[in-house]
Amino acid sequence: MKATPSTSWPQRFGTFALLLLALAFVLRSFALFSANALPLQLVLGSSYWPLAAGLLCALIAGVLALRAEWRRAQSGEAQALASLRWGCTALIAGWLGFLFLVDPFQRLWFDLGLGLVAGGYSAFVLLMGILGRRSPRAAFCVDLVSFSLLAGLLGLEVSLRAWAGAYPSPMFARVGGGPSELVQRFRCKPGEVRFGFPCNSAGYYDEEFYRKQPGEPTRVVSIGDSFSVGTVPHAWHYTTLLEEQSALSQERSRLRVDNLGVAGIGPREYLSLLVEEALPLDPDLILISLFVGNDLSVEDVLGDLPDSGLRAWLQRDQVLLAVFPDRVRRLQKEQARLSGRAASQARGAAGGDAQPSMDRSAASQAFPWVLDPLLEEPSLAPETFHNIELGRALEICAQDPPSLQLMKDCLLQAKRAAGDVPLAVMLIPDEFQVEQELWDSISASAKRPLERDRPQRLLMAWFATSGLPVLDLLPVLRDVPPLKDGKRHLYHAFDTHFNARGNEAAAKALHSFLRKLVDAAR
């Protein structure tokens, strides 16, 4: 269309200005590519030259489109609004291409990709100009279809995020790949024998898992770190004792507890476990066990990464268009694996019967300290243990715990992801919060004021407003009567984990706590 005298400068030269900006992005990407040529060759290998060719083509397209648009603008042809639409098309196409070609997100790949997208926009403007002169109807169809399709995909992503916010579901949980990888790395090996008991086929210190069947006891899935893995024979683990105590109670209060414990993990990994492995078990309730000794001082690696806003849209595990299909596939696969499998059949299929587990009598003979904690051998040298406890006390009792907010955020995300499945929390105190002698030693070494119950004070105030039921084991463990030497002996000698006596105290308190929750849910 020829420009009329009333055609404004932005209408006539708007596309030219956009192409000039696009060329600037291409030149910037070219400069970055040249400055990082050697490391890029090492990282990309054979893909280095296609990327170089792509940037060169982007540069040529930018120059040609800029020249053609200058001529068009001078002749009075206005297409600024159309070029804005083409720019959106190029950006959405670049976004989708980046998602499926680049993972994980890194700023250099983004900057290089931006140059390719800018070149793609220039090429599209050039193509549409040629096509528009030869076949206006074909140009209109290409413009309409490409924009509608890509804008529809972007709209779908926005809609999925809105739906996930309004109706939380594990299908839409964006937990990230990092936590899942840590869980896979740190979990026990299938069949690994701990205190005479073989871990199940999923790598957990428990009997084989199977999906809940009609008429079975209430299913509780327990998630936690090394406290959940346990450092006692399986018969003395608090989840086993919890099942036994519930079996002695009313029939309707019987519990089956599946223990998803992985040593060395923290809040983000708990969320990943909940979404990826706890929910496919079809639980009636999920319990997350938090150890205040180190769960409140973990390093928030993901939260400290730069460009968080870009990552929310350009990292594959954060985009629901990529997450949702993968989530459906994984949950269906896990449920199919678990459905209809009796525990004994599953164990036999996994080869677990090749290593039978010790019964309670044999385990007590092999590990006599389960019956008498005074027989325990120290796990760590006294000085090493003291330094570990001192470091923890300085992190969580001398100041607000470093990852307190991370903990809150992860729990709220877990609550949303759990949907209709009730979520509860158990707070496990550190030993220096329970044993007075150890606390006195820690306080003397700290050389600064310490508030012994600071983590619980901060967390319990937050739990009161979060809607999450919580069991604080600190008052429970302090009420356990001491043995003849004046110590309660709830943790292994010079260790940081529950012994059999500590597991028993936790199981009793947990049974009462969960029974109330289960009864209230009925």
Features:
alpha/beta; 20 helices; five-stranded parallel β-sheet; Rossmann fold; 7% strand; 522 residues; two-stranded antiparallel sheet
- The CATH homology group name of the largest domain: SGNH hydrolase
Radius of gyration: 30 Å
Query: What is the name of the CATH class of the largest domain?
Result: Alpha Beta
First-last Cα distance: 71 Å
The main pleated sheet reads as: 5 strands, parallel
How many strand elements? 7
Structural class by helix and strand composition? alpha/beta
**Mean pLDDT across every amino acid position:** 86
How are strands sequenced across the largest beta sheet? 4-3-5-6-7
What's the number of domains?
2
Uncertain regions: pLDDT < 50 for 5+ in a row? 1-6, 340-354
- How helix-rich are the residues, as a percent range? 55-70%
**CATH architecture term of the largest domain:** 3-Layer(aba) Sandwich
Beta-strand fraction estimate = 5-15%
Give the ordered list of helices and strands.
HHHHHHHEEEHHEHEHHHHHHEHHEHH
Shape, please? elongated
Separate helix tally: 20
CATH T-level topology of the largest domain? Rossmann fold
Q: How would you characterize the overall build of this protein?
A:
The protein is an alpha/beta fold and 522 residues long. It folds into two domains: 9-166, no CATH class; 175-303 and 373-521, Rossmann fold (3-Layer(aba) Sandwich), CATH 3.40.50.1110. The protein contains 20 helices and seven strands. It has helices at residues 9-35, 37-44, 48-74, 80-101, 107-134, 136-166, 177-186, 226-229, 238-248, 267-278, 308-314, 320-338, 343-350, 360-366, 382-396, 404-418, 436-446, 454-466, 473-478, 500-521, and strands at residues 193-194, 197-198, 218-224, 255-261, 285-291, 423-428, 470-472. The strands form two sheets. The chain has a five-stranded parallel sheet with strand order 4-3-5-6-7, sandwiched between helices. A two-stranded antiparallel ribbon has the order 1-2. A hairpin with a 2-residue loop joins strand 1 and strand 2 (197-198). The radius of gyration is 30 Å and the shape is elongated. Residues 1-6 and 340-354 have low confidence and may be disordered.
